[in-house]
Amino acid sequence: MKARMTILLITLVFPGLAVVGVSLYWFNLDYTALIKAEKHLETQVELKNLNARQLEFAYHRTLAHRLNVFADGTWGLLGGVITALGINGLVTVKNNKA
Q1: How far from 23 is each of 8, 58, 69, CA to CA, in Å?
Q2: What is the pTM of this model?
Q3: Lower CB count within 10 Å: N or C terminus of the chain?
């Protein structure tokens, strides 16, 4: 019984928590970069002396940050599901001592 619980902890719960933690860390970094890029884009739009190429470049930089934020959030959800599966397995392990 202890071996099953140990295996569930080692293979599901701890890695799932690690994935959630790492993805939340990178989510925060990428989200602040996205906010910075959005503000930069707003200032670029307000300037009238820029050409379309420079505006397109600034817009595509914000799109890259949006994709990073989305990917980090998706990995966080995946890590949460893995952790939940491990915790569910820990809770539903039957006790043979009766």
Answers
A1: 21, 25, 10
A2: 0.81
A3: C
